[in-house]
Design goal:
alpha/beta, two-stranded antiparallel ribbon, binds nicotinamide-adenine-dinucleotide
């Protein structure tokens, strides 16, 4: 089984650079999908309150026979739990659903800056961290302006920023800002939810490297230093997505993939997104 590299977060906690994401995995499919992923070797599971499958993720881990410390678990605060008190209630719900005492990484899912100030919510995550209920805390979908506010006003610098990124949305400025401030970047929808897989350049590179377009795209993220957790409920694709550690893209080919950027989002724009359900 390939050894997945780890990234050391700004508080010394180590996170696997490749994991398994469960967005849009139905609750009745989740135990099976996470069980398959753990068997293949994935040791990072990325869920969220809004995915409504935390409980099933917890069941799969409990049944796996793995020690709790062997699996890195991330979840995210629901968009309907903004503000200090609601966020403290939120972590209780996540820990109870997952059936654990401490989560490895807990994130604010969206800044929702037009709905409510996120600094108060972040103060709750700081409390959760200080109390030891999360080994690390971070944010998701934060742009430079959102991060700068936390850097100016908060005590703790987020350990990660989880953002949409893939060859059609390379986010170079935001990756550079994260790196400059010691914030690890996690790239969500690393395959553009499948949209990049038919790209001519990626298909050509896949032929050159005797890999698949998905493997080439995922390897590009790894060499950029991002943490990724592609999603598939099919074990053969999970295995394919795990097979990216015997591949090294040349600098020229890394640049060729980055040049595919067209600033094209699959998901909402964090500046305007205001859905609080
Ligand atoms: P993704 O880029 O991982 O693409 C998933 C889709 O690509 C799957 O539905 C499948 O159809 C296809 N696919 C996967 N592997 C493949 C392969 N080897 N060959 C062919 N097709 C393949 O998109 P995603 O699920 O949106 O993102 C991954 C994870 O990121 C999520 O599960 C979730 O954990 C996280 N995420 C976070 C946010 C956020 O706001 N923080 C938003 C979306 C997703």
């Amino acid at each position: 089984m390939a050894t997945v590299p780890t990234v050391t977060l700004n508080n010394g906690v180590e996170i696997p650079q490749l994991g398994f994401g469960v967005f849009l995995v139905r609750p009745d499919e989740t135990v099976g999908a996470v069980t398959s992923a753990l068997k293949i070797g994935y040791r990072l599971i990325d869920t969220a309150q809004m995915y409504q499958n935390e409980k099933e993720v917890g069941i799969a881990i409990a049944r796996s026979g793995l020690q709790r410390s062997e699996v890195f678990l991330t979840s995210k605060l629901g968009n309907n739990k903004l503000g200090f008190d609601a966020a403290l209630f939120g972590i209780d719900e996540t820990l109870a659903a997952l059936g654990i005492e401490q989560i490895d990484l807990f994130l604010i899912h969206w800044p929702l800056a037009t709905v409510r100030d996120f600094v108060g919510t972040w103060e709750a995550l700081e409390r959760i961290y200080v109390e030891g209920r999360a080994r690390a805390i971070g944010v998701s979908n934060f742009d430079v302006g959102h991060l700068q506010r936390l850097l100016d006003e908060a005590e703790i610098v987020p350990a990660v920023n989880q953002i949409e990124a893939h060859p059609y949305l390379t986010q170079e400025a935001l990756l550079a800002f994260d790196a400059e401030h010691g914030i690890a970047t996690e790239a969500w929808s690393p395959l553009g939810r499948g949209a990049v897989l038919g790209d001519r350049q990626l298909v050509d590179l896949a032929t050159t490297y005797a890999k698949t377009p998905a493997q080439v795209a995922l390897r590009w993220h790894i060499q950029r230093g991002s943490i990724i957790f592609p999603k598939s409920i099919h074990p053969e694709r999970m295995r394919e997505n795990f097979g990216i550690f015997d591949l090294e893209l040349s600098t020229k080919d890394m640049r060729r993939i980055s040049a595919l950027n067209r600033d094209k989002r699959i998901g909402p724009d964090p500046e305007t997104f205001s859905e609080i359900r």
